[in-house]
Amino acid sequence: MYSESGEDIRCTVRVRVLVIDDEPSVTDALRIILEDQGFEVAVAATGREGIEHARLTKFDVIITDLRLPDANGLDLIVTVREGDMARKVILITSYATDEVIEQALTRGAGSVVLKPFPPSEIIQQINAGRVCCQCNAA
């Protein structure tokens, strides 16, 4: 986006992503991949820890697993949406059924990504309709 003088006025703020998953291999891999793409990344191993992070920091995107030791990802979607904790929620899971996908989308998830997934799929889902929470720039 450019001003009338031709100056580039696009947002330069890093997109904040919270990854909630109890598998360290998933959170570690996503942190490395997303940080390499320029995203600011926080991770949480439980639903409770994730919600605490989200209450303290406004995230652009929250990526949550369906099955967590202390929470159900579908319930987290509702909590995130009701608390306006992120602009977008992405559910990741190895256990997707048509019913789970429908429930996730109905509860406010922007998308459901099946594990295992290529890094490009998560990056694409984050960038789809990307809006920065700090400046509301598209």
In short:
The chain is α/β, with parallel strands linked by helices and 138 residues long. It contains five helices and five strands.
Give a structural overview.
The chain is 38% helix and 21% strand. The chain has 138 residues and is of the alpha/beta class. The chain has a single domain, classed as 3-Layer(aba) Sandwich (Rossmann fold), CATH 3.40.50.2300. It has a 5-stranded parallel beta sheet, with helices on both faces. Helix 3 runs parallel beside helix 4 (98-107). Residues 1-9 have low confidence and may be disordered.
Q: Averaging pLDDT over every residue, what do you get?
A: 88
Count of the domains: 1
Question: Major sheet: size, sense and barrel closure?
Answer: 5 strands, parallel
* Secondary-structure element pattern, one letter each: EHEHEHEHEH
Task: Label the structural class.
Answer: alpha/beta
- Oligomerization state: single chain
The parts where pLDDT drops under 50 for at least 5 residues are 1-9
Strand content: 15-25%
By CATH, the superfamily comes out as Response regulator
Give the CA-CA distance, first to last residue.
9 Å
| Rg measurement, Å | 15 Å
CATH topology annotation = Rossmann fold
| Helicity, as a percent range | 25-40%
Write the SSE topology.
Blueprint: E1 16-20, H1 24-36, E2 40-44, H2 47-56, E3 59-65, H3 73-82, E4 86-93, H4 98-107, E5 111-114, H5 119-127
Parallel strand pairs: 1-2, 1-3, 3-4, 4-5
Helix pairs in contact: 3-4
